[in-house]
Amino acid sequence: MKKVVKFGGSSLASAKQFRKVGSIIKSDESRRYVIPSAPGKRFFDDTKVTDMLYHCYYTAANGEDFEEQLNEIKERYNEIIDGLALTLCLDEDFEVIRKNFADRVGSDYAASRGEYLNGKIMAAYLEYEFIDAADVIRFDQDGVFEAEITNELLAARLKNCERAVIPGFYGATEDGNVRTFSRGGSDVTGSLVARAIQADLYENWTDVSGFLVTDPRIVKDPVAIESITYRELRELSYMGATVLHEEAIFPVRKEGIPINIKNTNKPEDEGTFIVESTCKKPKYTITGIAGKKGFCSIHVEKSLMNSEIGFGRRVLQVFEDNNISFEHMPSGIDTLTVYVNQDEFEDKEQQVIAGIHRLAAPDLLEMESELALIAVVGRGMKSNHGTASKIFGALAKANVNVKMIDQGSSEQNIIIGVKNRDFENAVKAIYAAFVK
Ligand code: ASP
After folding, report:
1. Whose CA is closest to 48, among 10, 6, 82?
2. How do residues 146-190 score in pLDDT, each as one tens digit?
3. End-to-end alpha-carbon separation of the chain, Å?
4. What is the bridge-based pairing of β-strands 335-341 and 288-301?
5. Is the CB of 36 under 6 A from ligand 1?
6. How far is the CA of 231 from the centre of ligand 1 (A)?
7. What is the DSSP letter of 281?
8. Which residue intervals of 84-184 are DSSP H helices?
9. pTM score above 0.85
10. Residue 206 and residue 7: Cα distance in Å, rounded?
11. In the beta sheet, which residues pair with residue 145?
């Protein structure tokens, strides 16, 4: 059994957290490849080391004195090293970093040092081999990630390596220029390593006991999801629920490798399994609820629209011409409504109205703003009847006026449009109706 284990910044913010991570790894022989993030926040208003590195680099790039800022970063690492009673010394690494900052080698390089240094500490602490991600994660000259070359490099490098620490978040071009993924990208590295070694499981350790049914800022202490399919996860993440970097799903999905989201502070909790598909009956009919505010709708009416071939295409053409993507498009016999992101739409509003008049000659065009969309997602909906009535019954009881309903043909999700002001109440009502 081979497991890849990735630990997020809060799991590695201090020596105390490192110790927890160490005992998690040592408690299971199969946890062989470790992907650390940079040290995160130790307390609520602390600063992540990655952010400190970016700031420090901007100071250096502006030609200002960055000595003090770099020393503060060094302090963060030395505190961990001392707390773990390691003999490791990072002075030489910091000398190289100081020189590279002065030479303005780039902000990607700067940010990547957070993971690089934490990886060195982790390798020393576990007595595992350290593999620099710059040697095995490949980007092209434009900074575009190269999946297949990376897979080959990783597979070849790890073939005869029993145990290793590979820092997350970065890689390099063929000639050694360091490049990073977008923020939170250590999740992606973990997934790439899992794919390359064909791991049995990719464990992603964080500070919550899994992916929660809904946003804890709206519902107090929501329960964690036991298992979720990649597809359900896509739907929920698209609607704003975050637990993993979006791009972290694809490499493991290709190989059918499950991901287990786990809590470093409560390792005994099962966490959430993210899987390709499962026969396991979900505990509740719905898997998750997520949503976003800030949409508007453009409602178009035209008599006999149904028989006018190409009408829908012409309306959508206007959005495409203005470079606006649409979210949903429910339609009736003589009506069609397009939901778009308000921020994206506002500046181009008048061009779009004019365009629709020109291309589609509608009888009526109306707009409504300040709308929110809520996705209720669940593979269990297919085999349970009464889900819709339960959702809309709960919304009616909570006095929420439903503006739009859109059920995908997969029967895995129902999208509900409400006014922004009703958003939180709607989410609470749906949660309470399903999760007891
Ligand atoms: N340290 C990086 C960040 O803060 C990457 C990561 O933690 O995954 O975004």
Report:
1. 10
2. 999 999 999 999 999 999 999 999 999 999 999 999 999 999 999
3. 36
4. antiparallel
5. no
6. 25
7. P
8. 91-102, 107-126, 147-158
9. yes
10. 6
11. 139
